Amino acid sequence: MSEVKQHGRRRASLPPAVIVDTTPVVLPSRRAALAAERAAPRPAARSAFLHGASQKVGLTLAATGLVLTVSLPATSGTLAAEETPLVHEDRTVSARADAPIDFAAPAVASSLDADGRLKQTLKVEASHVAPAAAKGTLGAPLRSMVPSSPFGQRVSPITGEVGETHRGQDFAIACGTDVFAAAGGTVTFAGWHPYGGGNRVVVDHGNGLSTTYNHLSEIKVTVGQKLERGQVLALSGTTGASTGCHLHFEVMVDDEVVDPMGWL
Fold first, then answer.
1. How far is 202 from 185, CA to CA, in rounded Å?
2. How many angstroms separate the CA atoms of 242 and 197, rounded?
3. What's the distance, CA 225 to chain centroid?
4. pTM score, two decimals?
5. 122 CB-near residues (< 8 Å, 6+ apart)
6. Vertex 138: Cα angle to 132 and 142 (nearest 5)
7. Fewest C-beta atoms under 10 Å: which of 28, 104, 236, 249?
8. 215 phi and psi, to 5 degrees?
């Protein structure tokens, strides 16, 4: 009997096993991400920005009158979110209860203080005052200043004489109009002037300077009375040597008349 070789089918080899992790992947929620962001330390720049913002808010409230005391945060170092809160320093300004508080105006003459300026000008004799210094030191004796006859040589409106010396400046004004003191001073004459001035008032302003107001219909002051600049002293008129209602205004320096326009 012949030998028969039996051949069996060879089993194919299998590849290595692959292990798959079936554990579910859990993505972080939005809330958890925000919490993690807050827990992280703040950058120095963000912290400094927040500190500066708090100072601006405090100063803005103080400027609008909503708070009386402005408290500024301490600036030593930068605080992280988990550190202790900022400590505010009270910087309220105070003074002793017995500290003197003086609101008195300084005794300094200025261009806004007309009588003060005149007083400064008259530190020297009025006759020594330069024209530039004198100009504008006296106030207007009338609300409406309408020149009608100048100081100096003129034709007399009464006699027609040529070359008459006009001792003052005339201003056309209706009778009964308020006449004001051109500066502070003392009344040295208030009455009838026998040489053409009619009802007349003379005010002494000190150091050789005086003003006179003539042809008045009514006198409202008395000799020795102290007047302030702009105070009503009389009403205009046409008394004395006058041809109509007007104010004859004079400026005298050491009892000598000068052009009033140099002082007005």
1. 10
2. 8
3. 35
4. 0.59
5. 129, 205, 206, 207, 208, 209
6. 135
7. 104
8. 65, 30
Report d(CA 101, CA 104) in Å as an integer: 9
Please report which confidence band the pLDDT of residue 86 belongs to, taking 50, 70 and 90 as the band edges. Answer: low
Cα angle for residues 140, 144, 148 (degrees, 5° grid): 90
For the stretch 208-224, pLDDT in tens is 999 999 999 999 999 99
| Token duo for residue 158 | 């009464």
> Contacts by 255-258 with C-beta closer than 8 Å and gap 24+?
255/210, 257/151, 257/167, 257/168, 258/151
AA identity, residue 15: P
21, containing H or E segment: none
Domains, the chain, ordered by start:
44-84 (no CATH), 114-262 (2.70.70.10)
Max intra-chain CA distance, the chain? 193
Total Cβ atoms within 10 A of residue 26: 6
Inform me whether the pLDDT recorded for 100 exceeds 60.
no
Helix (H, G, I), strand (E, B) or coil at 36: helix
